[in-house]
Amino acid sequence: MRQVYLAALLGFAAFTTALPSPSTTHYNHRSTKDAKVLILGGGVAGVIAARTLHRKGIDDFLIVEARDELGGRMQNYTIGVPGKQYTVEVGPNWIQGTQTGNGTANPILTLARKHHVKNQYNDLDGSITTYDYNGLKDYLDILDTSIDQFTQIVADAGERVKLQQVDLGLQSAYGITGATPKNIYEAACQYYEVDWVHVFILLIIATAHPIDAQAPDQNSWIASAWNNNFTFDVDMGGFSDENNLCIDQRGFKTIIQAEAAEFLQPEQVSLNSVVTTIAYSGDGVTVTLENSTTLTADYVLCTFSLGVLQYGDIAFKPDLPSWKTEAIQSMVMATYTKIFLQFEEKFWFDTEMAVYADKERGRYPIWQSLDHVKFFPGSGLVFVTVTGDFSLRIEGMEDSDVQEEVMEVLRAMYPNITVPDPVAFHFKRWNVDPLFRGSYSNWPPSFLPGHSENLRATVDKRLWFAGEATSLKYFGFLHGAYFEGLNAGEEIAKCVEGPACTGREHFNSVVDASPYPFVSITP
Ligand SMILES: Cc1cc2nc3c(=O)[nH]c(=O)nc-3n(C[C@H](O)[C@H](O)[C@H](O)COP(=O)(O)OP(=O)(O)OC[C@H]3O[C@@H](n4cnc5c(N)ncnc54)[C@H](O)[C@@H]3O)c2cc1C
Ligand SMILES: *[C@@H]1O[C@H](CO)[C@@H](O)[C@H](O)[C@H]1NC(C)=O
Ligand SMILES: *[C@@H]1O[C@H](CO)[C@@H](O)[C@H](O)[C@H]1NC(C)=O
Ligand SMILES: *[C@@H]1O[C@H](CO)[C@@H](O)[C@H](O)[C@H]1NC(C)=O
Ligand SMILES: *[C@@H]1O[C@H](CO)[C@@H](O)[C@H](O)[C@H]1NC(C)=O
Ligand SMILES: *[C@@H]1O[C@H](CO)[C@@H](O)[C@H](O)[C@H]1NC(C)=O
C-alpha cells in the first residue's frame, strides 16, 4: 500500500543501515495495522519523535509527509545570477541561544555540530546602522534605550508571576513602564527589539505606532518574557544570549535530514503524501490521504503547524473535543517574511544589520547584509524582513510590485546614490502555503498555561500532538519543535510498550481565577 519515494528523500545518496536496536523484536511484530505509530509531518518534531521511538526499540512507525523531502519549515532557496548563486534560508535561519561555556547546549546547535552544518555568530545588538526615509539617521541611543526597556519588561514579568497577577499584553507592559513609542524612531526601535530581535517570534505590536492605534496586541507579556528567558537567559536555564546564522550551502535543513539518514529506513517514510482525514477511536486510528489511501495504526502523532490545524485542512473524526479546539484556536499563528535581493555589487551598510524607520510602522524595517565578511562576502546579497499584517499584505501582491516598494525604501535610505535594480529577487509566502499557513506560533495574552497543556494533550490516548506550538517554554523555535518531538516519542513509546501508558492530561475547561461579577442583560 505504501509507496516510498526513496530517491527523492533527503538528497542523500544512501541511508546508513539502521543499527539493530537492542529490544526491538517484541514491539515490532506486524499486526494487521499498517504501523504501530503514524507520525504525521516530517519536520523537526516528526523526525525527532521518530528517532526517539527508534532509540526505544520501536521501529514500526511511518512518517507521512506531504512534501518531497524532510525538514518541514526548514527550507532553502538558491538565489543569484549564474556564477553567483547562493543557498539562502527562506524559513528558520538562526540557532537561537547557543551554549554558554560547557553549559546546556541548544539541541539544534548540537545537531549542527554533529553534521558539520556551518553557522556563524550574528551580532544582532551591536552591529547596526540606522536610517529613516531621508537617509542615514543616527538613533542608536534610542535603540539602546529600547533594549533596556525590554530587559525591564522581562524582569517585571517575573514579578507579575510571583505576585500571581494576571497576564497582560506587551503593549500594556510598554505603557505601564512609560515606554510607549512617541515617534517613528522609538517605534522602529521597539519593533526591532520586540518584534524582531529578542522575542523575534513576537509580531507587530501595531498599537505601538501612534498613528495606527486600532490593531490588536497579540503578545502576552508573561509568555514573551519566559520564552525569552528559557532560551537566552542562562540563569533561567537558557542556552546563551547569542544567535548564530546558518550559512551552510547544503541548507540549514541538513541538520535534520542528515540526522534522519542515520536511523530512518526507506519503508519508514512516505513522502508526497497529503493527509486529509484523521479518524480516531479507543481501538486505534485511521489516516486518509488525498488519493483515498488509508493507513491504520495504534497511535497517531500529528505535528502539523498550528496554522494548518486552525484553518481546518484536516478533518478529524469524530470532531475534536471543545477543549482541544479552544486551545488550537486561541494561540496565534504569526507570519514572518524574508525578502532577498541580489545586486551587482554592495552599496549598503558595512554593519551586519540596519533598522529603517518609515512613517508607517512595519514597512520594510529590518535589513540584514549577507554581503559581509562573516557571511557571503562578494555575494551582493541583502535581505529585508517584514512581519504580521504587512506580511499578509505583500503575500497578496505580485513579486514585481513588492520589489518596487522595497526599492522605494532602499532609494529613500540612500538618497545620494543611484541605486540600481536588483539582479535577483525572492520571497516565500508562508501564510498562503497550505502546508504551513504562517511561520510560527505566538502566545497572546488571553492564552493561558491551561490552554498550552490542552494544545499538547492527547485525545483518547490515541491522538497525539507535537510541534513548536505545543512547547510551553520554547514555542516558535526550532528547539521547541525538537523538545516536543522528543517528549512525544518518549510518551508514545510508553503506550506502545503497554502498562505505563497514561497519555497527556487535559483540562475540560480553562477557567478564570475569580468569577466575573454577574451582569444581567435586559433588552
Ligand atoms: C520564516 C521563518 C523563520 C523562522 N526563523 C526561525 C529561526 O531563525 N530560529 C528558530 O529556532 N526557528 C525559526 N522558525 C521556526 C521554526 O521553523 C519552527 O519552529 C520549526 O521548523 C517547526 O517544526 P515542526 O516540526 O513543529 O513543524 P513543521 O516544520 O511545520 O513540520 C510539519 C510538517 O507537516 C507537513 N504537513 C502539513 N500539512 C500536511 C498534510 N496535510 N499532510 C502531510 N503533511 C503535512 C509539512 O509539510 C511539514 O513538513 C522560523 C520559521 C519560519 C517560517
Ligand atoms: C496514494 O499515495 C500513497 C502515498 O503517497 C501511495 O503509496 C499510493 O500508491 C497512492 N495510491 C494511489 C491509488 O495512487
Ligand atoms: C536548497 O539547497 C540545495 C543545496 O544547495 C539545492 O540543491 C536546492 O536546489 C535548494 N532548494 C531550492 C528550492 O532552491
Ligand atoms: C564546566 O567547566 C568548569 C570549569 O571549566 C568545570 O569546573 C565544571 O566541572 C564543568 N562542568 C561540567 C558539567 O562539565
Ligand atoms: C546627501 O547629500 C546632501 C547634500 O549634499 C547632504 O546634506 C546629506 O548629508 C547627504 N545624505 C547622506 C545620507 O549622505
Ligand atoms: C526573566 O529573567 C529575569 C532575569 O534573570 C528575571 O528577573 C525575570 O523574573 C524572569 N522573568 C520571567 C517571566 O521568568
Question: How would you sum up this structure, described in words?
Answer:
This protein is of the alpha/beta class. The protein has a domain at 12-72 and 253-331 and 443-497: FAD/NAD(P)-binding domain (3-Layer(bba) Sandwich), CATH 3.50.50.60. It contains 14 helices and 22 strands. The protein has helices spanning 24-28, 44-55, 107-114, 140-162, 170-176, 184-197, 221-232, 254-263, 306-311, 322-330, 388-395, 399-413, 449-456, 478-497; strands spanning 35-40, 61-64, 76-79, 86-89, 94-96, 119-122, 128-132, 135-136, 243-246, 269-270, 275-281, 284-289, 294-302, 315-317, 332-334, 336-342, 353-357, 366-369, 381-387, 424-427, 440-442, 463-465. Strands 1, 2, 10, 11, 12, 13, 14 and 22 form an eight-stranded mixed β-sheet that branches. A seven-stranded mixed β-sheet has the order 8-7-17-18-19-16-20, sandwiched between helices. It has a three-stranded antiparallel β-sheet with strand order 5-9-6, with helices on one face. α2 (44-55) packs parallel to α8, α4 packs across α6 (184-197) and α4 (140-162) crosses α7. The radius of gyration is 24 Å and the shape is globular. Mean pLDDT is 89; it is low at 1-26 and 198-216. Bound molecules: flavin-adenine dinucleotide and 2-acetamido-2-deoxy-beta-D-glucopyranose (5 copies).
Give keywords.
7-stranded mixed beta sheet, binds flavin-adenine dinucleotide, 523 residues, 14 helices, disordered N terminus, binds 2-acetamido-2-deoxy-beta-D-glucopyranose, FAD/NAD(P)-binding domain, alpha/beta, EC 1.4.3.-, oxidoreductase activity, 8-stranded mixed beta sheet
